[in-house]
Fold Amino acid ABC transporter permease.
Amino acid sequence: MTYQWDFGPVWRNLDGLAIGLFGTLQLTAACLALAVPLGLLLAIFRLSGYRVLSGLALVYIDFFRTAASLVLIFWFFFAFPMLVNLDFTAFTAAFLAIGLQGAAYFAEVFRGGITSIGRGQWEAARAIGMGDAVAMRYIILPQAVRRMLPVFFTRATLMLKTTTLASAIAYTDIVYVAFRVSSDTYRPIETFTVTGVIFFILIFTLSRFAAFLERRLAVAT
């Protein structure tokens, strides 16, 4: 029997999908706000000459990179609140799980970008009296950012996709709303087709923006 497509029920629930989309973007932005600066700090610790800091950063990075994202989300939602005697919302649990894991991946992105800069740049900075911290801020990082920009946006895109796992703990993201809409309308094919198109538009736009920035930075170099 030929399937009869009907997007009408989905269009009537677009306001709910829009709320879910806002939830997805809100969680992604929060996770990036945690992962990026923490990842940079971990990369600096990893590259430092202090064995304790470098070792702790390595343990953190290896642990979170090998952990399953969904397991981390469940752990921060069900287990961690019991240990600290606090009630966590679905947003808080997903934010901690995805943000802390994302920091481990961004640490490797930053480390790769920083180590790609030749030692001559460090030596030149020291020759004009710059300390390592000042050289990192004004000489090394600006050059490293240009080189790691494509990988940075790839990681950001993967983080956006990972936030969909938060629907497993009933966080109101677009996937969670899509499940509810498909259940209410009995139109799962149409509902998740529309959801897939929304994700395609988001990720395609992000990739085009990344390519635009890469071109602009290449011209400015």
Remarks:
- The chain has a mean pLDDT of 89.
